[in-house]
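Researcher: Sequence recovery benchmark, item below. Answer with residues only.
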């Protein structure tokens, strides 16, 4: 679930706030909040701090929700991400870096 859904439920609906009222409380414009609530944008660190200050839910918790959401989205298409596993070469001296490129 996109974290904007949680913001809508736990912050707006729980407190009887409209999007306009909540945007005013958070100190952002209505469109910014609307984009979050409608999953068109995510929770930035600044928004997380604003949510913590306004509604008491820790900023770290908001950011973890955002990270969990983004990771779940990528994992849904992980099989389409083509990357060969890294295999360290056994060069003389045991190093894997070319001289001058570390």
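Model:
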């Amino acid at each position: 679930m996109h974290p904007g859904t949680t913001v809508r439920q736990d912050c707006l609906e729980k407190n009887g706030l409209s999007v306009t009222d909540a945007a005013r409380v958070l100190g952002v414009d209505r469109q910014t909040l609307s984009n979050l609530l409608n999953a068109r944008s995510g929770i930035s660190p600044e928004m997380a701090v604003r949510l913590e200050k306004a509604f008491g839910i820790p900023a770290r918790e908001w950011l973890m929700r955002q990270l969990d959401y983004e990771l779940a989205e990528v994992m849904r298409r992980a099989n389409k991400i083509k990357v060969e596993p890294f295999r360290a070469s056994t060069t003389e001296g045991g190093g894997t870096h070319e001289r001058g490129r570390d």
